[in-house]
Each structure stands twice: as C-alpha cells, then as structure tokens.
Design brief:
Chain lengths: ~350, ~350, ~350, ~350
C-alpha cells in the first residue's frame, strides 16, 4: 500500500520519474458525460511549466499532454482517464554527481534507505516533475467543479519576508492574473520581484506562502470526524513537495485570539443563514458552511542552490556539491497551480461523496 | 463512505455522540501477541478527561474504558479491539435551548444542513467527547510504538499571546509533566496560568499552540507521493476539533528563510549519516530521516462562551444564547493527549506499512 | 490492514469472539433520516440464533441487540451506528480440550500459525458467532433497500443430495417462510427433514446450497471493471464461514451450454427494454440490468461432528477429539439470513456508489 | 469510487478501451529491488493474445508492452510501475452497427443506462481487451511470487460437456503446456478440440471451466473475517469477463457430502503438521494452511455469435444482429492466463499484507 493514489470517490494515481520515459496518471471516478476542454488542460500545465519565469528553472519541456482513455467524442465516459506527458529534455549527465551523493534537504538519502535502490536521475520519483500529473488531474476536477459553480484560486501571500499587508482584502480575483508572479497587491509584488532578483544573483533560494480561496462551495461538504474538509485539504497541501505548513480560517493567528473575537456569529441575510465573519474559513465541524473556504500553505526555500554546499556521499564521506543544473529561485509562483489542483481534487472528491447524503 | 475511520494498516473507527449511550471505537490491524497495559490506557484517558483542571469544563465522567474484544489473557490476538466508555453524566436539559438554535462557530448549522437531522444534545457527534475514542486508540498505538523504541510527546508552546521563547530548546521531556498545563518553561507557564484565570473570569476563552516531538523514529517511514508522513500527520491534526493549523520543521517561518539558511546538511556522526540541523522536522521527501519529527498544531479559542452571544434559530430569527453549561477556557491542556494519540496512530500505521518495503 | 471491514460507501466493521464479552459492529455511511425498526432487527437476529431448530446447535443466547449510537429519536442521523450483543451462555470448559488441539477443517491451526496466539474458546474470532454482527448490519441495509423497493430473499436449494427439481420455478416468495427449513418445495422439504434426522442420529453433518433472489434492483448498480456486482457478491458470500462456492445466472451449468442457448435476447415489453431470459442472473458487464439478481452459494458440511475424530495437538501428537459441545447438523437453515444480510450490504453499498453517476 | 483498482497493498489500476489509443495500467506497491524479466512479461501477454489459436478471434494486435516508470536499470524501484500497449488493429467500421444497438448478453445496454454515454467501438471499456492490463500486472506479481517459491497454474477442466474424468489427478504441471488448449488429459483434449471445431462451424460458441492450482503457499495468508483468501479469490475471478462461478476445495460437490467425508484430518508428516486430504482447498478459516490452493472458475459461452441474433436498438425497436467481426469460439483457452494473473495478484497482495503479522 504505497501512497501514489489520492482521493476516495475521485481517485488520482500518478506515475513517473523526473527522467524516466513519461509522467502521468489515471483519474478514476470522474463523472461521465462531461464536455472536456483539452485546451484548458494544456493551459493549466503551462502554468506549472519550468522555464517560464525569470525565477524558474530553465528545463525545457513541452509538457504536451496525451489522453489515452476515458474521453470519447469530446466527453468523459465514466471510464478511467489515463494521461501522460513524455519527458523530452533528458540531461542525465547533469545528475551523474548525484549517483553517490545525498543532496541536503532532498529525498536522496531517505529514498535510498527505504527502497534500497534509487533512481538518482534528477530525484527520480521525488522530483517536483511528478506534480505535472496532479495539475492535469486538477484541471479535470476544475472542469467538473465549474459546472457546479465552484472556483479555486491561489495567489502569492508572501515570498521571503515580503508579505501582503495585514489588512489586505482580495476584492477581485482578476488582480492575481495581472501579476507576473500571482501577487494581487502591486506594491508587494514589486518588492518581491526585486527580492527574487537579488536572491537569484546570489545563487540562493527563498520560501513563501500561497493563499487559496474556494468560492461557490455549497453547505454540506466534508465527512466528520476524520475526513473533515480541512483535514483532507491539509493532507493534500502537505503532500506537495516543499510544503511545510497549512492553516485555514484564523489559523495560527487564532491561537492568540479570544473566543469572543474569533467566533463567527450567525445572521440572516437575504433570507439565508450566513455568518457575519469568516474566522472559520468556510468550515464548521469539518463541513463547509457556504462561505468561501480560505487557507494558506507555507513553502520552504528550494533546497537546490546555485552555490557550493557540503554534504556526504553514500559512504558517509564529505563531498562538496557544486551548484549546477536548472532550478527555481522560489517554488511559489509555479506552485500556485499545484495548490489549486490539489484543492480542486479535494473539493471534487467531497462533492461526489456528498451525494451519499443528498435526499 | 463517511469519515469515521482513520489509518490504512492500523484502522481506528470511532462511534458515539456526546449524550448517547456510549462513545468508543474499534481498532483493527493491531499486531498480535502484544502485552496490553490497561492501566496505561486508563491513565491516558484521564489526561483528556473533563473536570480535571481549573480551566476545564466541569462535566464529570468516569471515562471508565471497557474492552470488548481482541485481548485474550492480557495479550492482543490480532482480532479487532473494540472498546467503549458509557456516558453517565447526561444533562440533556442543559442542551434544550440548542434544539432550535445554531451556536456560533459550532457544527450545529452544518450538521443540520448536511444530514437533515441533528442530535442536538451537546453537539452530538461533533462533540469533543468523540476524541475519547481517539485517545484510547492512541494508547494502544503508543504501546506498540514503545516496543519499537518510539515515543510521542506533546507540550504547550503558546496560549493566547504567551509563547515559549524563540530560542527555547526542549532539553528534557520531563519538564513537561512537571507543569500543571504541560508547559516546559516555568516563566511562560506562570504567565499563561495568570492569563487563563483572567480569561475565565470574563467568561471568555482563548486559543493556543501545541508542539509535538516524536523520538526514536527509524529512517524509512512515509509513503510518497501522497501519503508522505507529514501529509498524514497534517490530516490527523486537522481532524481534531478546533485545530486550525499545522506546520512541521521550519514551518511558516521557513517562508521567510533562504535555502542556504534552511537546508539541513548531511554529516557523518558516530558512523551514521545524520543531518547537522533539523529544519526538515525529521522528514525528507515525505520519509522520516531518523531525526526527531517535530510539528506544531494551532487551536482556535473554544467557541462556547460563558457570556451572552447573538445567533439565529433554525428559522433564521435572532436569538441570544446564554452562556451556560460546562466548558473549557482553553482546549490546549486537554488536547495534548489527543495530539499525541493521533500522532501515535499515524506513526504506528506507517511502521506497519513500512514492513512492505523491508527486506 | 486486517480484514474486519466490508463495503466502500456503507462499511460494516465487526468485532467479537465467540466467548468474549460481546460481538457487534459499527455500520458507517448509513444514510441519515431513515426510520429504524428495531423489532425487525431483532427478528432478523432471531433467524440466525442457535437452538431454534431441531437441527441446530443448542447454545442458548438471547442475542439481544443493543444500539449505542447513530440513532436519535428513532431515526438514523448519519453518524456511525454501533451495536452489540453480549455473550451470556459462556461454557468455556467445553472448550478446554481445544487449548492444545487442532480441530479438523476448523481455523484453529491456521489462526495459531498466523497470529502466534489463539483465543481457543469456541474458535474465538473464527466462530460463526461473528455473523451475528453481519445479520445486524444486513438488517439495517434491508431497511434502506426497502425504501428503494429492493428485497433480498434466500431459500434452500439443496441439502445433502436432496435438491429442488431442475425445472423448479419460484413463483411466490411466501412459499419459503412457510417451510421450517426455508425450502419452498414441500416434497423436497420432507426428504430433507428426514435426511437431517438421519444424519443427526449418526452424529454426522451435511452440506447444502442456498439460492438467493434480489428483486426490484434498478438498472445501473455495479462498478466495472473490478467491482462488478457479481464480484462483490462473490466476495461477500465466500467470506461466510463454510461457504465453498458461488455462481450466478447460468453458473457452472453454463460451462456446458452454447452461446445460442445461453444468450439473453433483448426485447421491448411495456415500453421498456428487457431480456427474454435471465441466464445473466440480472447482471451484464458487471452492472445490474433490471432483472432479478439470482445466485447460489454452496456450503460444506459443518466440520464439528458428534463422533470421535482423529487429529493432532499443538505438538503434532495424535489425539482423538470427542464429539461434544453444541453444534449444527447443517449450517444451511441458519445461514439463509446471513446470505441475505451480506447480499443486502453489497446491494446497499452499490446503491450508494451509484449516486456518483446519477444525473 | 469507481471500480478500476484491485488489491490493497499491491494495487493494480487499469485503463483503456477496446478501440481507444491504448490499454494499460499502474501497478502500485510492488516491492523494490526486484529484477524484472520483460521477456516473461511479453510471453504472458502473448498467451492471452488473439489470433493465436484456431478457435480464437482473428484480431491482430502486437500487444507490445511499454514500461513507462518504476523500473530502473532492470530493477523495480518501489515507484508505481506504469505500462501500456497501443491499440493498432482498429477497425471501428466493424462496430458501426453497434452505435444504436444492444448486443445480447453484452454490456452495451447496462453501460449506456449507467453512464448515459457509451464508447460503442468494440464494447469500449467492457471489452476483454482490458484484461491485457491484468495479465501484465499478474506477470509482475508472478515474478515476485516466484522469489517466494509460489507458482500459479491454470488448466482446462471442462469445455462444453467434455470434462476431465472425475478421478483425474494432476500429477505434473508440465502436462498442461504440452496441450494446445491447456488440457492435461490427452483423451479429453481430443474430444474438446473436435467439439470446438464443430461449434465453430456452426457459428456458435461454448462455455467451460478452468481449474487453478497454487503451489508453495506458506501457512498464514488471508485476513479474516471479510478478506478471507477464498473471498478475495472469488472476487478476483468473478471480476473476469464471462466468469459465472467460483468454487474452491470440495466446492459445490461438498453440498452433498457428509462432514465425516469432507473433513481434512490433521496428521504429522516429516515433522510438520499437515492435512491428510485437501477438501478445504488449502484454506481454513480464510487462511492458507500450507496445502495447494485449488479452485475452479466457470465461464459462460462467448455471447458474440457468428450467426444472426435478434435484439433491439436504443429506441427499443427490433433489429437483427449480423454475425460478423472477430471473436472467440470459447474464451477458456485465452482466459487461463487471466485466471492465473488475477490469482497471482491476490496471492501477492496477501503476501504483502501478511508482513503485518510476521514477527
């Protein structure tokens, strides 16, 4: 029972290593008879592609997605949807030094200890290239959610020490796509871009925080007590490479708050029962309450640096790792579409699970 | 597929409502032939019991656990272990006002919308009383882990705005149990106790943060790519009532760090490959690396206040909720054993899953 | 991941040993807001109870079921339904000789080898007493199916060499309940009763075949390719103690048939597309086609005999097992309600899974 | 939660339609560091390939398998193994008449009713071409089992009314591969071949029974109470297209037997506790007892005939289906490798599950 599948009703299973033949997946349980927009799928994949931004790795992959099954005459059939993208930009020689070395804060050491064998080419299975399949799966999920009136949108909240102002309110989602790096506050965006340039010039990397907002969620998603919707979102987010934290609603800041400040009072508005505030991040008792679901995900700095680092080889001897290859200064801009994809998979899964309880 | 089961190899399924006949669970997949210390089980349950601390709810329950199966002549048999505690301190009349009312930041509204029926007595299934079964399940898991040399320990990191000093290092676990509230830094403990008294006197509540440290973990636990050990811990923690955030290793603070600061360099020590620092919180690529696993969980303030609050009834009409009943000022002191229990269940599950990959 | 849970949307987890404190289970995923008839539940349990028939074991158990959770004011709430029956007729001394002995064709040997420990009292977990929890779970499932217009009915097809005539057609289900042993053909019934008396007089036992018919099934249940409805029924039936075979539709007899004989031709009838025959047993491509689902389950003779048998003890030394204790001459009459229960659980599970694909 | 995955520790997920781009699958949980013989894989696939035998369909497919992931330098890495075979012999025009028609005893009608859309080309997902992925998955499982000393072998027991003699004992497995149709009794083989020729000349088809024997199974596989090894085998077998029955050990014949005839007495032999007979088919209480596991699977006749058949179109109007296309006279010769593959997947899954209980 290894962990390459995600979801209960809508199940994504991914495969593929960074420098193997292909990466891809099977999405099983996708509702039938839904019109699929393959251009949208490709657009989503392009959002995570390397070599796009100044601050991203220069690896060139077309990431051209191929659908193998489950779609007939433009519509989903209810059969499993298999898809893949071939790996074309192999440069295994870049990774020759990795054969006998453990990169700091990478998975080289733990994979080798666990499996007694390691595909050392570019991290093999532990590479972020695996997330291509998540983005593809998420793009299908988004198309299903779109029919239900649900949207999932991520944006940059913080990179390095530069963060959206505390009193920042996201009034329009359109502000996000206008920004090169997905930051909806132009002043902060400028500071971040300057910061990224500086970090890059030093061969270093930096972490950040992504916010995500899910709109149009009906009341009722989430399965107490263990499959609370925040629990499944937390798992989804922490399964993303480099993610180190998750919070929703008032989150870690809520720890310092009083109940009288944090509680969301119920009020009637336009004939509907809603809450006056949203400290609960759209979820109460593990079940969506009709408000926007809002959460943050913290990412550590990319561990591969363009500077020398000390490490050990597989014999435990000291070595110096040279900073070369192709890598991101900051994972956050490319990770937004991954956060969205995983969130969309969680929400779509719960929409399907919810059907059990409907009338 | 409702969400009342947790784990893949070691599966805990819980049942029971706050004021039903009993709460309990079935633990399935527990290894056979393990000596079970029922006193330890009871001691763990006492740690979460109400009415213990000045700052906890006054509900009196013996929480006397009864084992129904799976143990024979003092040892586990490999059969499912069923257990329960009868509910004895029923005061359903305390909850009469809840029949037609939605408490702020509680699950009343969402449960009723989802299931079209609600056991309104004390929150029914959404009550924290359900966590009794988690603590029992966790106590079994701890006994199994103990044989493997693994320990799980939670402590108070923050309550309200009072937090352990930034440079605090937990040198000895014994400091935790000496504190009435589980805070290993006496100065901070005193501030917190004063703060809790003040909050209580106002009928208000307050949030906090629990830290957890898992010692003795072997290299190799965790199943990439979705069942990374941090992903399963995150899910476990966010499934606890009132938990609003999870972070491990450098966590949210890591967002502001550079790669060159955050990376854990490999070194050889006593003939073993280890890391010089532990920004990774004991996990790399989703797999334990042999270091302590360290994480934090943020809890919101308890939503039930001993003061009047505005809300609406099931018709959407304004009502005022009176502050009465029996409730905690802060969930954190009682939640420590719940955090430990859920962490122990995750680790034990992964110890059993790991067997698949061993030699 | 031991195997004490059954189902995907509607999950029954059972616990309990033959001579432990109690047997019971948790039924999770049961739809909310359904009126529960506890008398029906008890009636179903009485159908499997020992000591009822001339030919059944004389163990006296009230099998009085107690519901611990999930029902509020007479209706299901969507929370897990926990239930149990205490074991009252303990006679562990009857089983003292089993401590160091392996009974022929029982699970004593395999349990001890697998778990390295065995609750030897009456077979412990391997006892048919565990099926009490299945019957209770099935009784809930039947109540849900009843609302959907679906009924599940088992009857005796064969005991020993006495079988319903080949050309027998079950015109009215009521014929079954009129028979003491559940055989709807009076002539066959008489022969069987005589045969059972004779077998009993010799201290021997005998096998049989149960037929089951499921009426009112809508078109569309079953999830290709692995969770075909016949696959899930087969698993359910072969999980019952002593079951040794499963067939549906034309079954084993179909092996000798030609396609031109066996095919079910589609015809239009009353404006609906139906099949002229039902060699497919109501299932095509793993999905129900609207016809009655029909299948047979073969049971081996009860292995516990009232005569001496040779065996070995745990050291491998020859011993003679005395025929004593309380046991059935034939499992079939009591197994009918178990077959129905397991079938009802499968069908209810698929009704809930089917919701994923509905409009 | 659709049903395209099989297994719990070792999980095979399949994809692909008869005339889509490709069929294939992902095998997840396969142990790492195992040398993989790709030639064996191809040989197994050739055993199920069409166009091999006189009596099989004339569809020509290379069934050339391509491995996309999970194998590195000839060994499994513990990562998911993705594989596929492209569909090359498309003749969709053969299937034009199926667009608006329901073939008798096929899945056309039920798929269309369930999913509201149907890939009508050659049965789409319901085609036996899907079993290619099962055979590939099974070939991996066999390589793992081989290391454990376990072999899985199927043979023809019956085709039409021609069956192995009742007293037939399979002394040597080699007899099977010497037979063109996998029948280890030359006299029966000749009768069957004559029968198949006659059936073919009439454009008709015929059913049959496959026996399977699993050798080298250790004591201890199988997870009571629901995941008994016979229960998982039954599900596996009934999930194969056209399978209509499963029995193990004394099976349906056991229904007519007495306990004193059917019981397997324990004896000591060469210092080991074994049973004198094997009516239990190698399984007691759902757990393997060290004997050969033996079971039979009944297959209905292929429903596609080379003769005219009446049916209805999607409007319910009468139509006549012409017998054309490429189809088998009898599924049994090609189904042997599928039976073996599914059995190997079940046994390998339980070998991995068993590790939970080992020392």
């Amino acid at each position: 029972m290894s962990g390459n599948s995600f979801g209960k009703m809508l199940v994504l299973t991914t495969f593929g290593e960074s420098h193997g033949k292909a990466v891809g997946g099977i999405l099983d349980g996708f509702p039938s008879n839904i019109l699929i927009d393959l251009d949208f799928l490709q657009t989503e994949l392009n959002r995570r592609r390397t070599g796009q931004l100044l601050f991203s790795s220069a690896r060139k992959e077309d990431d051209r997605i191929e659908i193998l099954s489950g779609i007939f005459e433009g519509k989903s059939t209810g059969a499993p949807i298999a898809f893949l993208a071939h790996n074309i930009d192999h440069k295994p020689e870049d990774y020759a030094q990795l054969r006998d070395t453990y990169r700091p804060s990478h998975a080289d050491f733990t994979y080798e200890q666990k499996y007694k064998i390691r595909d050392y080419r570019g991290g093999g299975r532990s590479s972020a290239r695996e997330t291509l399949a998540r983005v593809a799966g998420g793009a299908f999920a988004k198309q299903f959610l779109s029919i239900k009136g649900i949207s999932v949108t991520a944006y940059v909240k913080q990179i390095g020490q530069y963060s959206l102002p505390n009193n920042f309110i996201l009034h329009e989602l359109s502000g996000i796509s206008k920004s090169e790096i997905g930051c909806p506050h132009p002043e902060t965006e400028l500071k971040i871009i300057d910061h990224l340039k500086e970090i890059k010039s030093k061969g270093d990397t930096v972490g950040g925080i992504i916010s995500c907002i899910i709109k149009g969620v009906p009341v009722g998603l989430g399965e107490p007590v263990f499959d609370k919707i925040q629990a499944d979102l937390a798992k989804a987010m922490l399964s993303i490479n480099a993610a180190h934290g998750f919070e929703y609603g008032s989150g870690f800041a809520g720890a310092a708050m009083k109940g009288s400040e944090n509680n969301d009072l119920f009020v009637q508005k336009d004939g509907k029962i809603v809450t006056a505030t949203n400290s609960s991040g759209g979820i109460q008792g593990g079940i969506s309450n009709g408000n926007d679901i809002e959460f943050n995900v913290a990412f550590k700095p990319v561990p591969t640096l363009m500077m020398d680092q000390e490490s050990v080889n597989t014999k435990g001897e000291k070595v110096v790792l040279k900073g070369k290859g192709r890598h991101d200064v900051c994972v956050v801009p490319r990770a937004m579409v991954i956060v969205e994809a995983m969130a969309a998979l969680v929400i779509a899964d719960h929409v399907l699970r919810w059907k059990q309880w409907e009338g």
